[in-house]
Amino acid sequence: MAKVSLLLVINQLSLVYSHPAGNSRQQSDVQHPEITLSTDLEVTTSYSTAIQTLQSATETSRPPAQGTIITVLPTGGGITKDPAHLPGVTKTSALLCPEETPLRPGSTSPAGQPADNVFVPLPGSPEPPPSIPTRYDHPIPKQYIADGDVPVQTNKFYANFFLGGQNQPVWTHPYSLYWTKGRGNSYGMGISHIERSQLSFGPDANKPQYFLAPTFLQHVVLSAAELREGTVMTLDSLKAFSAYANFAPHAGAANVMSVPVVQGMGFVTAIYNNSQPVLSSGVFFRSLKYAGTTNDAAITFKYNVQLEDGSQWLIYVTPLRSVGVPPLTLQGGGTIVGPEAFSGLVQVTKNPGGSPTEHYFDDSAGAFATEAVVAGSVSGSTGKYTLSWKKTGVQSQSLLMYALPHHVESFDQATKNAITSLQLSTTTKGMAVAVLADSVTMVEADLPTTIGFTPWAKAQDSHGGTGNVNVPPSAKDLINAAGTTELSEDMIAQTKLNSMYYSGKALSKYAGVVYTMQSIVGNSNLAAAGLEKLKDAFNVFVNNTQPEPLLYDNVWKGVVSGASYRSPTHDLGLDFGNAAYNDHHFHYGYFVYTAAVIGYLDPAWLQQGTNKQWVDMLVRDYANPVTDDHYPFSRSFDWFHGHSWAKGLFESADGKDQESTSEDSFATFALKMWGRTTGDVNMEARGNLALAIQARSFNNYFLLKSDNKNQPPQFLFNKVTGILFENKVDHVTYFGNNIEYIEGIHMIPLNPTSAYTRDKQFVTEEWNAYFSDGRVDKADPGWRGILYANLALIDPQTSYNHFAQPDFDYHSLDGGASRTWYLAYTAALLNMGAAQSEDRAVASYPAQPQECTAAQPASPTGYDTVLPSELPTGAS
C-alpha cells in the first residue's frame, strides 16, 4: 500500500502579511497551520474497506429550519448624527482682502509611470509625527487573538470572531460561519447557507424597507468529540482576506481543530489534529452515502449528504497516516461521527446542482485556500487586479472559489475560462459564481484618469470623460461673489471642532472654495488670502491642538480620536466611534483631500514642518498599501467586496456595514489627488483602480437601477440600499429615516467623481421616485443643497438656477458644502464643451461692500510649534 498521505504540521513560522508589494516587517509571533504532502510517513491506522454505502436517518419528520432574525439597527453604527448640520458655523462681517502676490500652483499632470505592481509602501517612515502621542491601552481590549504585537485588521469580515462574547457570525460569501458555543450541544464551527427564498422582508413584504437573512441555521457543524463545555476558540494569522479559527478543549490546551476562514472559499475545511470528527446538523441529516475517491492519488474520500430540507451537501475526507476509507457513521438524524484519533482534513460544501455538478468539487477536494494576496497594475486608462490564493493540501487539485457579480463582470479571458456552472446565493451581493482557479484577474478598462480637482462629466456612451474650468462671465462673477463671502467666514470657528468628521468636512469645503477661486474664477490674489486662512485652520490638526486630539493606538495599531479615552465611561460613540475605528475613511478622507488642494496650490507647503508626514499618517491608517509595523494593509477598503466597510470594533449581528457610498469614493478620490499632488504615481494609480472598482460595486449592490439583477426585485423601488450589511439591507440611516437622509447620504459630498460613480440613469430614476415635481423643496433645508447639486448630473440648468437665485438661502447648504463650489460645478457641467465666452448660465449678483480684512499669515506647522504634554479635555 502506497504511503501517500497529508502531513499536518503546526509550525512556528516567521510570517509577513502577504501583499505582492512586500512588507516592511516580519511577524514572528504567529502559529500558522500548514499542510504539505508527504509520501514517506509510516501508516499508523488501517480502516476497513467494508464501508456501508448508504446510511439513512431513523428520524422521518422534517424539523423546521429556523434561525435568528434581528430587524433593529445595531449599536456602534457609523454616522449617527446628521452630517449635514455641522456645529460651530459663524460668519464675519468684513470681507477678506486679497493678497498682493498670486498663487503659483504645482502641476496636475501625473509624475511618471506606476510600478508593475502598484501596492508599494509609502515613502518615508511609518512613525507618527511627534505631535501624536502614543497610548498603550484601548477601551476595547484585544482578546482571543493569538498573533503577537502586530497590526490587527479592525474592519474586516471576521471581526465578530474576536469581539464581544464571540457570539455573532461572520460571512465569507456565500457561507456564514459561527462558533456554536453549545447551540445544538455542539462547540464547533457552524456553517449556514441561505437561499433567496429564505430572506425575510419587512415591515411590509410587498414594499419592504429591509430584507435580511436568518442567522444560526445549523446546516452543518464541524466539531470534534473532544470539544465540549469549556471549549475555547482563538484566532491567528489575521490578514486582509483570511484568518484561522482554532478550537481547543480548554484554555491552554492544544488545538484539536483549525478552520481557515477565507472570503469566497468554496469548501469549509476543518484541519483535525489527533481528534475525532463530529458533524452535526440542526436541519438534520436525511442520508449519508459513501461515493468513492476523488483525486489521482486516491487519498481524498467523498460522502454525499442530503439534509431534511432537501439540500445536497458533500463531505470530503483526506486522512493522514492511514489507509482505507475513513468511516463516517450516521447516528440518528443529527450527528455524523468520524474515526477516533483522526488527523487530516474534513471539507464540507453545498452542492446546488446535484450529481451533474459534483465533478467540479471532485476536481478541487483535498485543496483549500488559507489566505489571499492582491496585486494591481495600471497602464493608461486600463487597470487590472488579481486575487491570488495560497493553496494548501493536495497541490495537483485546483482551488474552487466563489466570485461576486462585480468580479464576474470584469473577469479577464483566462478567468472567464475557469467559470463553472455552480452558483450559490449570497445574503446581500446577489449570486456567487464558482471558479476553478488558484487566482482570478479582473480588468477595469475605464479608469478615471482624467478626473482632477475640476468639475468633471462622463463621456456620452463611451469611456473617459472631461474636466472643465470654463464657465461664462456672468457665472464667473456670481461665483466670485459667493467665494468672496465664504472665504470671509471664520474658518477656525467652523473647523476647530470636537469631531474629526465635522472638522474634516468643513476644511474640505473651504479647500473647494479656494481651489474654485484660483482655477475657475481666476481670482488668484483672493484665493491666496483664503489659502492662508485654510492653512492656519489645517495647522490646528497637524499640531494636534484641536479639542479632541488624535493619538496613536499601540494596541490595535492605528490613529484614533482621544475622545473616548477621556470620557469617564469610555464612551465609544463619541465622534461616530472613531476610537473604535468606525468611519476612518470618511473622517480622514476629508483631511487628505484638503491637504491635496493646499499642496497643489502651494507646493512649498509639502516640505514645511510635518505637513506631509501627518497626512501620510492618515493615509496609512485607512488605506495602507502594505502592512508595516504601525498599520495593517487597507483597513477600510475591501478588495474582495469592492468597497469599504465603515464598522470597526463593534460586534454586530449582521456583520460589517456601510451607509455612504459617496463618502467612500470621496476618500478614494482624496488618495488619488494626494498621490497626484505629492508625485506618488503608485498612490494615484491605486486611487484610480479603486475608484473604478467602487463604481462597479456601487452600481451592482448599492445604487439600484430598475434593471438591477443582484438585489431582490421587490426592494429596487427604494433606489438605494440605505445601510448595506453583510447579512441585511435596511433602507434607513443611523441618524434618521427622512428620505433625503437615506438617499442624500449616498450623494454627499458632490465632487468630481460623482459623475463617475453615479450613473445618469440611476440619478434620473432616483430623482423621479423621490424629488421631482417640487418634492425636493419640502426636504430638510440642510439637505436641499446636496439634492439640487446632485441634480446637476442630469439637469445642470435647473441645478444652477437654484444656486444662482438672488435670495439664495445659505441654510440649504450642509456644513461641508459651499455655494461657491455648487455654482462652479453646475455652471461647468452646463457649459461642458462650450467655448468660454458662450453665456448659457445667465445670472447677476448684488454689489459687495468694499471693506475687507487681511488674512493673517499661517502659523508654522509641526511638532516644534506645539507639543501637548497631555491631551486636553474637549467637549464631546
UniProtKB/TrEMBL annotation:
Residue ranges annotated for the Glycosyl hydrolase family 81 N-terminal domain, each copy included: 138-457
GO biological process entries: cell wall organization; polysaccharide catabolic process; septum digestion after cytokinesis
Domain spans labelled Glycosyl hydrolase family 81 C-terminal: 474-823
Keywords assigned: Carbohydrate metabolism, Cell wall, Cell wall biogenesis/degradation, Glycoprotein, Glycosidase, Hydrolase, Polysaccharide degradation, Secreted, Signal
Subcellular location per the Swiss-Prot or TrEMBL entry: Secreted, Cell wall
GO CC entries: cell surface
GO terms of molecular function: endo-1,3(4)-beta-glucanase activity; glucan endo-1,3-beta-D-glucosidase activity
Comp. bias regions, Polar residues: 850-859
Residues annotated as signal peptide: 1-18
Pfam families: Glyco_hydro81C, Glyco_hydro_81
Protein name: Glucan endo-1,3-beta-D-glucosidase 1
UniProt organism field: Epicoccum nigrum (Soil fungus)
